[in-house]
Amino acid sequence: MITMNTNLSSISIISQTTFLPSFSSFASPQLPRIIITPSTTIRSCTSSHKPKRQTISYDHHHHLLFPNAQERYSKNDSQINHSKNISIVRDMLFSKEGNKASLQSMMLIDTLQHMGHDHLFKEEIGSTLSSIYDNFTHQTRPGHNLFESSLFFRLFRQHGYRVSPKMLKKFIAKNGEFKLASSKDIKGLMSLYEASHLNIGEDILRKGKEFSSKHLWDSIEWLDNKHANQVKETLEHPYHMSIQRYKARRYISMHQDDHENGCKDVVLFELAKYEFNIVQLLHQREFNAILSWWKKTGLAQELSFVRDQPLKWYMWPLTMVPQPHHSKCRIELTKAIAFIYIIDDIFDVYGTLDELSLFTQAINKWDISAIDNLPNYMKVCFNALYNVTNEIAETTLKEYGWNPINTLSKSWGKLCNAFLQEAKWFASKQVPNKDEYLRNAVTSSGVFIVIVHLFFLMGQGLTLENIQHIENDPSFVSISGTILRLWDDLGSAKDENQKGFDGSYLELYMKEHQECTAKEAQDQVMVMISRTWEALNKESFTQSSFPQPLINATLNLARMVRVMYSYNDDNHHLPMLDDYIFSLLHHPL
């Protein structure tokens, strides 16, 4: 995935825990037993290549960042209590009957989703929703109020049911707008706002989002602090647009003192905290393994001009497939993502055009003998990529009986072809039109590389038809790439360190629409992102060829894009990424 030129801070392992408020964008954050040192190591290479950025990276202390990751939750009594809580919640799901109980069941399922442990009750939730849906099919308009109708629509569309937002028409006035009578129904407005993000191009949901957003923001002025904070949380982090574990962390912290249902709520929160912390421990161990692998490759030393950011690379798989059983998948996918960044730096920072052409030819041939004419640094990269890709292919063959090496190697060739096209544009000072640029940039985003590798690592839906389909950029992959590229280019406009034309849809849009101000162009790109999300929703809710876990992972990738590319006012800092890393990897509940 292409990223902006950013500064990294070197870190040192020390004997105490120090907490600092922030860290440079894409650098490793302040994790246990780490601080940023006053001095930094700036590595540079002298060569006749095009001017390169200076990178500040790790100072070679790649020790375990979570030395106590094995210790918490080792007692049997915690595990026994955990099992009891699971049984209690299972009984809660099956103990409700009737219309009123249907609403209670939907609210419970929604709570389980917000707490992040709905995966423990997948079968029970599926059975409960099926029963509720069968009951409601005899009613022309399920839901008696805005809250219930919006919740019904959102839950059932999320779970693959064909439901229409027309059920919300009862809340529309004769002028085609939502009735003002609903403007003070805070609970209903929050439910409508959440539902509006599952839009697949429906105008009623666009109006619902505009209506609910306006009146919710207005309500913050007169609500008490507790409810105002809950409204703001919904507006800033709607469930469908958020990473579930991050949302769960925030939801638990915000609602853990709410016990309207007595001991039942206590059980839900105990279960949520235990699940969150157990999975966090697993993620910490995985990151230790990734650091160990990265150190053994020696690439940070041999390719000193490339970004040295294993934590950032790991954040993509961690948020795409967070479930415990995908542990090995996350580790292997991080390795592939590392090479997207490494090869991007070779093309964007260091290589000459002639060298890049030879490198692209070698990648497309995928033959170790094809690297004889490459400079040494490219040989190092090719050998490392070749070995990692073959290891992933061997793992897939061993576990699922399918050797994906041809598909994987083709995907790397395709990425390098797109990178080379951008390098040629840069070298010739030839500026493409915005549409031509975007078509190529969707490929150079690297999204399809990630999804192709994930498809084989997950091992579901491995048929010849699906493999041929995924090699040709299915819509859900290219749409996700478009979202990433547009967000990335919004960030590029803020990166004052970039020199010359390095590729920006925003820049090209303004060139072709010279009457537009920068703000108007940015607003237009945000509209494009919103419409592209609607297209991704439609693909994810309607496609049936690929397994749903892969589609969900693609949605999570798109959700993570905003976190990775939302710079603050100083242009080089990502506060959302800071918060995600602290929440998901650093602090237990």
Automatic annotation (TrEMBL):
It comes from Dioscorea alata (Purple yam). The keyword Lyase applies. This is (3S)-linalool synthase protein. It comes from the Eukaryota. Keywords: Lyase. Its EC number is 4.2.3.48. It is an enzyme of class 4 (lyase).
